Amino acid sequence: MRRLRVILAILVCKAARWGLRVLGRGGTSVPGKLALRVCPDLLGALGRQVYTIVITGTNGKTTSARMLEQCLENGAIPAFANRSGANLLPGITAEFVAHATISGKMRLGHAIIECDEAAFRLAGPYLDAKVVLVTNVFRDQLDRFGEITHTLNSIRAGIEYSPNATVCINADCALCVGMVQGLPNPIRYFGVETALFDDGEDGMAEMARCPACSTAVVYDYKTYGHLGGYGCPDCAFTRPKADVAVTAVLEELPDTVRVEVQAGGERRHMTINLPGAYNIYNAAGVIAVAEVLNLGMSVTAAALAEFRGGFGRMERLNIGDVTVRMILVKNPIGCSQVLRYLGAMQAPMTLVICLNDRSGDGADVSWIWDVDAEILGQMGERLHTVYCSGIRADEVAVWMKYAGVDEGKIQVEHDTDKLLESVASSSVPVYVMPTYTAMLEVREKLAKQYGLSQFWE
Amino acid sequence: MELNICHLYPDLLNLYGDRGNVVTLARRCEMRGIEVTVTGAPLGERVNLADFDLLFLGGGQDAEQGVLLDELHNWRGAEVKAAIEDGAVTLAICGGYQLLGRSYKTWDGKEMDCAGALDVISVGQKERMIGDYMFQWDEPGAPIHIVGFENHSAKTYLGNGVTPFGRVLAGHGNNGEDGTEGARYHNVFGTYSHGPLLPKNPKLADWLLRLALERKYGSAELESLDDTLEEAANAFMVARLANE
User: Fold this and answer.
1) pTM confidence score
2) Residue whose C-alpha is closest to residue B1's, from B226, B225, B208, B220
3) Chain B closest-CA separation from residue A136 CA (Å)
4) Selected residue of B229, B230, B240, B244 to mutate for chain A interface (largest A Cβ count, 10 A)
């Protein structure tokens, strides 16, 4: 009976997904929901058959998953991953179904599942993950729960449902380290042991409180946000020694960064095929996971040097002669890091910011004011124009003005078609920073007008 | 001319972009050649509030407000209250607004004393009031539409010692019951409006600056600025909320 339910649910899911594609739509949420209605334990039936690696945390899930996918591919380990941001329970289920036969047999042995914190708590019991990677935890008002404690508790619950998992934790995130205290799972720590910026200080002045006694922790060095080397002045809580440590940033280029990594008793240079401080952390986390999988450092290093960023993560495309890079922005800490990266570019650029306030973006756009945008005002001639677009284009324009961007450079353009015309005729490289639904809109127009591929392909 | 701004608890009450208000006040001074300083007063750090012309408190996570209440009870509450009685221009948003009030009762019945600087009480609810909202502010004579974003679980009720800041046109405001939004007392403006409030409500920003200058220098003429972008951002939300 149960077997029949599984088969029926798989059929429903596959049919619904096929149907949506015929209608020209992507998406995994509806097919997954339908399948779960037919067989609530579907994910368990499929999940038990594979070695699952769960990636969760506030920022960096998608990029870490892309990096890890490449690692497994280079290591000749057949695996699948949930793409297109399908990181809630129905989407994850649909992804498993896509890689199952009609009779309910998984075709591939490994799964890389990026998982929203709340979804991890829900999916945890079914997935029986063998590795859990927690990238970081940042405070975020767009968070549906609004409370950091809730987020941490969800992740912890997810890990408690994964008794067979080795847990890879960001040693520089006091919140993550506090969260795993007392868990029986083997823990592997990764971190960055060098300041990531010349000034060694991040403007947002975020800091963590000791998870044991609530005292503000003291830092030896900070990388960004509340991340860094810390210790509690009042109790024994301190940053654990990192098993995988980035010990130096050797070279930063527009599209890559070279770092020195200490792991497994060896020290080696690695190239990460994406720029930006946050991607150094993503790579460190992935190296930790790759060690658990016994992939070997040379396999991992080669993968990090050649992987391609995910959906809107520094994706590069050309419109005629113009190079356009798209960087999804979701929250203040991520956006600040992107602006920091842009501010350090020597070549002139045009910037496009598309701010929507639909539910996929977060209805509250006030987070942009928590971003360190002043760096744009200091770019001078290197910043040609800032196009402000999206539903809340006017809000972006005010934000830019108060960040100190010369008003003559601020262009409000509500119409996406006209915006893309301006982008296509730019004389300098263009960086597009959209929120989630704005990105979908921009991509769809790009696909239609300039023949770029659709996102679910 | 010079104005000194004190940002209270930038370390704890800093989650909802409210620092945009401080940026706006400071920039609008700079654009007019008024010198301005911004000083943060985080938890545990004593400043002399009498040195400041403008006080600002933002909103934060509920979880972080407990440690803050201790400090308010011990010493800061009395200092803030004295500054307010002395006429310091004060803008308090959401959590900051609640903390200035008399008390906060959680939805499960725990009652906590707050700073007692404003005659308002807040009562926690299970359902949060979240969304874009708009209220009418009549104080300047010609009514002005203020737009913002509210996100609070408590309902706030005004006592006799304060007057409403505005009348709700869309959304919930203080409690979603009596049509009031925020509270006014001396030079205090308490409100639920994140957004942040001042960037897209430039008339309110200038009102606060003018009050602060008048208090300090007796009289003040504020040079008018080109607010095309600010007013466009305001008009967009006014139009959208009017159609809802």
Assistant:
1) 0.87
2) B220
3) 18
4) B229
